[in-house]
Write a structure and sequence with these properties.
Radius of gyration: 19 Å
Number of strands: 6
Shape: globular
CATH superfamily of the largest domain: Peptidoglycan recognition protein-like
Helix content: 25-40%
Bound molecules: zinc ion
CATH topology of the largest domain: Lysozyme-like
Order of helices and strands: HEEHEEEHEHHHHHH
Number of helices: 9
Strand content: 5-15%
Length: 252
């Protein structure tokens, strides 16, 4: 398949999108589908909006390039050579959209570009129904481990930001206020039951109504699809801020 809806998918981010001439027919043949989004940095020159664009375009090295201003350049709809040898086929070029963000790999990222990166990944994950857990850095998919270092930011924190953006897209402000209120009571199990109900699932489906950390564990095993995965990413972020049960001194 060619990702002929890629520019539209990118526009779902609200970012400025530039369609580079010929993108619809560019690439090294067909993609098999979209199961992973792989984040890269170009390790390019230290200044300029997208000095690496032509190099990437002419060699078919990524479907998308993210400029320093946060503008998205749509380069190719077909398969691109960006991931190389990976840990599992689903992470490989046939199944992965590659994003090359213009960056040296050493200098700090402009905040506008970093935020845009997360927004772009959220839009792609939403459009192609890719779980946030499948938004991965090249350094995470490349085999053997350690072969690649890009991108040079923490992917766990980055995915949390992606999840935040996805949640923004998924819920009305009213729903979000409700979820935040439930989560602030630190009863993630209860919140999860509300979510299940919201999704039209039977909250009593699990044998024991779970709560707290147990709720998170149970929810992890319950397949209610994409939406719940996004919510769990959010709950994980909340869970990470909760004290251990019976411990009063672990907030440091
Ligand atoms: Zn890379």
């Amino acid at each position: 398949m060619l990702l002929l809806d890629l520019a539209d998918a990118c526009r779902g981010s609200g970012l400025r999108v530039v369609e580079v001439d010929g993108w619809q027919s560019r690439g090294h043949g067909q993609m098999s589908g979209v199961r992973t989004i792989v984040c890269h940095h170009t390790a390019g020159p230290p200044t300029g909006e997208v000095p690496s664009l032509n190099f990437i375009r002419d060699r078919g090295l990524a479907q998308l390039v993210l400029g320093r201003s946060g503008t998205v350049y749509v380069v190719a709809a077909g398969l691109c050579f960006h991931a190389g040898v990976v840990h599992e086929p689903n992470m490989g070029n046939r199944w992965a959209i590659g994003i090359e963000a213009e960056a040296t790999g050493t200098a700090p990222w402009p905040m506008v570009q970093y935020q845009a990166y997360a927004r772009l990944c959220a839009a792609l994950a939403g459009h192609y129904r890719v779980a946030v857990a499948r938004v991965l850095g090249h350094k995470e998919v490349a085999a053997p481990t350690g072969r690649k270092i890009d991108p040079n930011f923490d992917m766990v924190a980055f995915r949390a930001l992606v999840a935040d953006h996805l949640e923004d897209d998924m819920f009305t402000p009213e729903d979000r206020a409700k979820l935040n209120s439930l989560a602030s009571r630190a009863d993630v199990g209860f919140a999860r039951d509300q979510i299940m109900t919201h999704l039209g699932k039977d909250p009593g489906a699990s044998p024991v109504p779970p709560s707290g950390r147990e709720g998170v564990e149970v929810a992890r095993r319950v397949d209610v699809g994409f939406a719940l995965e996004q919510i769990l990413a959010r709950l994980d972020a909340i869970e990470a801020r909760l004290p251990e049960p019976g411990s009063a001194d672990d907030r440091a």
